[in-house]
Write a structure and sequence with these properties.
20% strand; 6-stranded mixed β-sheet; Rossmann fold; Arc Repressor Mutant, subunit A; 9 strands; 10 helices; alpha/beta
Length: 227
Amino acid sequence: MNESMPNYTTATTIRNSQKVLESLARSGGVANFSEIEETSGVKGSVLVHHLNRLQALNVVEKETKGTYRLKYKTPLCFIFHPARSVPFAYFGLLGKKEERETPETAVAIDLLKQQGLKPSLKYVVTSPEALNSWKNLRLQYQWILCYEDEIIDVDSVKTKISPQLLSLLTNYVVIMDCTSATKPATIAYYELAQKLWIPLIYVYEETKQLKWLISKEDIQEKLTKKF
């Protein structure tokens, strides 16, 4: 810590950094220095210190002179941005049709909409074989195809989806859905969601109930320990 800075306790340091992150998230992920001062209550050189600290932690980026942005809008805008003007992206899995009439992805998206979470982008990971089994429905998703030897391997799924997932996190609140496809794909989603603090859902097929495997409250608890 800079010698000119006051001797803050660890708890105070963490709380001030959290206030700065909350301020940025409530502004939709981007704000200038004076806006952050006003909404966070962290002022002057103390704010400079915390912005530098958060940049060193690779959480905040300096966009232009005096303007800062969250490196990723997920998960902080999901937690703190009440107006929901930050767009949502759904990131799901699709298995083979078999006896189903409705894709599990469609069920999940409808359940999210009931909670006020309407995705503007829908990315779905599947295999060519599974996609072909649903061809009559002409599903309107952005597809990421994993071949049969990839969809059954945890690391292969993670390698295949990580570039697109990381790209989405910068400008969208991403919600992952690990309901369908293979067990390795489900594990890959869970591991990535845990690592990147992404909200994660699962839908019970028989009852059509949505469960948050990684909820807003889970992420908030991590946040209090991290920064």
